[in-house]
């Protein structure tokens, strides 16, 4: 038959079949999709419920349409791209140029012939064609249905004004359009779709379909990825009926799903108490954890916001809720989203194998770390290749199915969210909102999961806006989410709850409670706000001492050293940290006990310093190790490391950051210590400060925190309260800075405040502009086409672009090499991230080394996106393992 004279996959020469015929590839992909949409799968049931279709009806309809995903390859323009030998195929026609991709050509062919194919029963349409007044809606609904199938290469496609005869030709032997019609007819006869006619002409049903089309597109893309793998789907160029090939395709699809981890969804088990996680050890739940154990899990998508102090067990409470949600059928897996790579690493290590307790022992869920530098996490690298419990009877050179699955999922960050359990940065989830190719895979992965977002307070207005949109979409998809925070302003809590309610199609959530700690629950049945008690052992009072000069801060640090204590000074800029470190090294009786930690170290040195900080100040550190230790650090200290100090000095910063820094003060039990106190370096208190109030004492801080009113309000509330008392005064501390306090701000600070409010408004507008309108569906809109390959859109909005700089050095033979040349992942370990203005200060690579640099780029592909810096050839800027990057003229450099 004519349809068997078209190829879908081809290889250049070699033994065996030279091509894979188009009908067979179409069925390969459809077979994968068929198994992924098994009626018993939770995602299938969710889609069926949202679209008001029986699961089997939905499955047959979607799989039939998925089988059409590559009908654009029936184009003679595409067929001319290869000429496989040994098989009778349609000849190439030189007059047809391949100027449009085959995915778009599928949309072109469909647009030109769908109505004709309906009328002649090619598509197995039941009964008469709808009357003209309903036909427009039918056309639009079918467009929304087919868009995920044709857009299987990561972006939606549109037919536009392309003429079908410009790409689909005919000669005396074959007609491309007739070949496509024959395939569609045979496929429909074998896989007859149950067309839900009444729904296809319903505008409301089409709107629901639009919202779900992103997840459907992810399913189609994943099906195409797996169905195109030659390891499982061998080429076949011998003609046979579709009914004979389909069992072969199903068998191969089952093998592909088995090895990639999608054969069965993990089987959740009911939550049976904290002791069940820790081998029967008796554990008393915290008040937050007890509420998580007992609160009612409602029907439909659920949002939980957990606000409590550090040490209240928020992570474990989130895990309790997650296991209960899984057991109640609210998801198949989990994704933990954190603000930074460092916090993601810490959470990955902390979870360990706990996630396996959420599922039956036979499930062995995949567990993936998802961020840009995860290859540097040894625990993750070992886990990817490790044999899993229960994997037996494999030869030494044969990977188990679980190992294959983990490696496949870890191969690309695009796949990370497809793992059953993932830990990574919030960026990996937010990328699903932005017009990145294959973002639908991220949304498809999230649609199957309970989304857990930690440290929600850490996101700026740009990221908050994207997070709100992600939550609204997750609610529309039927997902559930858990948000964790210690210092969340009430206004932000209301915005997040409102976004969830909007996703559910409800009116805005009406939140009233001002208590802290607090658990907020929002679902289809309304909202609950539950004030919580606090364990006495996590109730803290940290005193405040005020310093007005750097000299006083230096003296305070040395006084602590003289008392045998360990102390940290958290500075707001790298340059201030370097200057303080230099002075303390001169004063300290043992300079080896001084340590500098900031963001301008190469990754190799940063990892070494992190290890040293943990060794000296971590939970297992001894009194002898801690005595006289001084850590001079920027914000990187407060973000992830599980360390504590006896005394802390801090530059003035917004209240939430000071609370976070205070959390590193005497956080572990170590016997008798002084009353915890933070010494804050700040300007002299003034009720009516001028605009230069902060700059005169902390010029670098004003460059970082431009809204100086936040720091003045922070100083004001801390002077009034005299201490940081958690949790009793947590709400008062936060709302006194971030609440409705505009009337308290002095006149000379109003300009900076309004300037920052304007920038925040710009950030919100940029987020709304950059984000895809997910409610409009997986469609391309020619009047506002966001899908531009050259666009540089990020999940974070920064004042200045950053540059990845790779440090280079000479070898003894004057050869160019990486800074960490002898290390595994030397290319990543030799990099440091700098602001663009800083990177411009570095000397350019001498011309004599250009060819060697190109050789390094060939060896390490990631270096193509970096700026080379030969440190020894720079007479103005320097780098060493103790100080990091230092510029000839210091100033305006970031945290």
Give the tags.
nuclease; alpha/beta; hydrolase; 895 residues; hydrolase activity; 7-stranded mixed β-sheet; Rossmann fold; Hypothetical protein af1432; disordered C terminus; 4 domains; 8-stranded mixed β-sheet
Main sheet makeup: 8 strands, mixed
CA radius of gyration: 30 Å
Uncertain runs are: 387-401, 890-895
Distance between the amino and carboxyl termini: 68 Å
Q: How many β-strand stretches? A: 23
Protein name: CRISPR-associated helicase, Cas3 family
Family: In the N-terminal section; belongs to the CRISPR-associated nuclease Cas3-HD family.
GO molecular function: ATP binding; hydrolase activity; metal ion binding; nuclease activity; RNA binding; RNA helicase activity
Domain Helicase ATP-binding: 295-496
In a few lines, what is going on in this structure?
The protein has 895 residues and is α/β, with parallel strands linked by helices. It contains 33 helices and 23 strands. The strands form five sheets. Strands 5-6-4-7-8-3-9-10 form an eight-stranded mixed beta sheet, sandwiched between helices. A seven-stranded mixed beta sheet has the order 13-14-12-15-16-11-17, with helices on both faces.
């Amino acid at each position: 038959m004519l349809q068997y004279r078209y190829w879908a996959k081809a290889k250049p020469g070699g033994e065996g079949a030279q091509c894979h015929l188009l009908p067979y590839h179409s069925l390969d992909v459809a077979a994968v999709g068929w198994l992924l949409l098994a009626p018993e799968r939770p995602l299938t049931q969710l889609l069926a419920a949202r679209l008001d279709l029986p699961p089997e009806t939905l499955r047959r309809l979607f799989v039939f349409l998925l089988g059409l995903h590559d009908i654009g390859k029936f184009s003679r323009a595409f067929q001319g791209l290869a000429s496989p030998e040994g098989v009778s195929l349609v000849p190439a026609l030189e007059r047809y140029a391949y100027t449009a991709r085959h995915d778009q050509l599928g949309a072109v062919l469909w647009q030109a012939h769908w109505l004709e194919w309906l009328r002649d029963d090619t598509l197995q349409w039941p009964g008469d064609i709808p009357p003209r007044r309903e036909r427009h809606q039918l056309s639009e609904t079918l467009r929304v249905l087919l868009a995920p199938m044709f857009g299987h290469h990561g972006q939606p496609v549109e037919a536009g004004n392309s003429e079908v005869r410009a790409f689909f030709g005919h000669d005396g032997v074959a007609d491309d359009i007739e070949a496509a019609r024959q395939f569609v007819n045979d496929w429909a006869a074998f896989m007859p779709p149950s067309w839900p006619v009444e729904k296809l002409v319903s505008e409301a049903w089409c709107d629901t379909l639009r919202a779900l089309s992103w997840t459907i597109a992810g399913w189609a893309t994943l099906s195409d990825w797996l169905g195109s793998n030659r390891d499982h789907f061998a080429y076949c160029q011998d003609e046979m009926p579709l009914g004979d090939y389909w069992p072969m395709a199903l068998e191969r699809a089952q093998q592909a799903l088995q090895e990639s981890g999608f054969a069965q969804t993990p089987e959740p088990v009911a939550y049976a108490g904290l002791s069940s996680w820790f081998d029967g050890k008796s554990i008393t739940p915290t008040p937050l954890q007890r509420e998580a154990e007992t609160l009612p899990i409602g029907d439909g998508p659920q949002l939980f916001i957990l606000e409590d102090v550090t040490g209240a067990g928020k992570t474990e409470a989130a895990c309790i809720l997650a296991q209960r949600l899984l057991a109640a059928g609210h998801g198949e897996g989990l994704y933990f989203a954190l603000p930074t790579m460092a916090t993601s690493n810490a959470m990955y290590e902390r979870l360990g194998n706990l996630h396996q307790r959420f599922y039956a022992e036979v499930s062995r869920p995949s567990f993936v770390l998802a961020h840009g530098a995860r290859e540097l996490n040894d625990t993750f690298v070992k886990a990817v290749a490790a044999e899993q419990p229960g994997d037996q009877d494999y030869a030494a050179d044969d990977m188990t199915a679980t190992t294959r699955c983990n490696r496949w999922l870890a191969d690309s960050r695009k796949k990370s969210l497809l793992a059953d359990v993932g830990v990574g940065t919030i960026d990996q989830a937010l990328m699903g909102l932005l017009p990145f190719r294959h973002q639908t895979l991220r949304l498809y992965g999230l649609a199957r999961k309970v989304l857990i977002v930690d440290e929600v307070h850490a996101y700026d207005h740009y990221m908050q806006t994207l997070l709100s949109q992600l939550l609204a979409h997750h609610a529309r998809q039927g997902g559930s989410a858990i948000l964790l925070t210690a210092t969340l302003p009430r206004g932000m809590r209301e915005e997040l709850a409102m976004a969830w309610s909007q996703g559910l199609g409800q009116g805005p959530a009406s939140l009233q409670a001002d208590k802290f700690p607090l658990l907020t629950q929002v679902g289809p049945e309304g909202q609950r706000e539950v004030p919580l008690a606090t364990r006495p052992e996590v109730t803290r009072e940290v005193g405040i001492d005020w310093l007005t000069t750097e000299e006083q801060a230096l003296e305070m640090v040395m006084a602590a050293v003289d008392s045998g204590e360990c102390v940290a000074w958290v500075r707001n800029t790298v340059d201030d940290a370097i200057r303080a470190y230099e002075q303390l090294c001169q004063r300290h009786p043992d300079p080896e006990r001084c340590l500098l930690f900031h963001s301008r170290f190469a990754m190799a040195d940063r990892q070494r310093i992190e290890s040293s900080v943990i060794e000296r100040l971590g939970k297992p550190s001894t009194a002898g190790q801690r005595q006289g230790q001084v850590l001079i650090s920027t914000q990187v200290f407060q973000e992830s490391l599980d360390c504590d100090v006896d005394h802390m000095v801090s530059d003035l910063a917004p209240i939430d950051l000071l609370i976070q820094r205070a959390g590193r003060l005497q956080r572990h039990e170590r016997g008798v210590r002084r009353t915890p106190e933070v010494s804050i370096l700040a300007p002299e208190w003034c009720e009516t400060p001028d605009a230069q109030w902060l700059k005169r004492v902390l010029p670098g801080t004003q460059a970082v925190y431009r809204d100086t009113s936040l720091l003045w309000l922070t100083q004001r509330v801390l002077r009034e309260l005299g201490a940081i008392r958690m949790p009793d005064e947590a709400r008062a501390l936060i709302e006194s800075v971030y609440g409705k306090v505009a009337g308290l701000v002095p006149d000379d600070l109003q300009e900076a405040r309004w300037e920052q409010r304007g920038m925040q408004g710009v950030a919100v507008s940029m987020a709304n502009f950059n984000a895809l309108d997910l409610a409009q569906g997986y469609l391309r809109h020619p009047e506002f086409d966001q899908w531009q390959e050259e666009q540089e859109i990020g999940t974070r909005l920064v004042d200045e672009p950053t540059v990845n700089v790779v440090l280079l050095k000479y070898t003894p033979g004057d050869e160019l090499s990486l800074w960490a040349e002898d290390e595994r992942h030397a290319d990543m370990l030799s990099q440091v991230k700098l602001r663009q203005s800083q990177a411009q200060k570095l000397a350019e690579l001498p011309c004599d080394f250009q060819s060697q640099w190109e050789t390094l780029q060939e060896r390490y592909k990631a270096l193509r996106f970096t700026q080379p810096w030969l440190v020894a050839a720079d007479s103005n800027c320097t780098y060493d393992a103790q100080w990091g990057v230092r510029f000839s003229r210091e100033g305006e450099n970031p945290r």
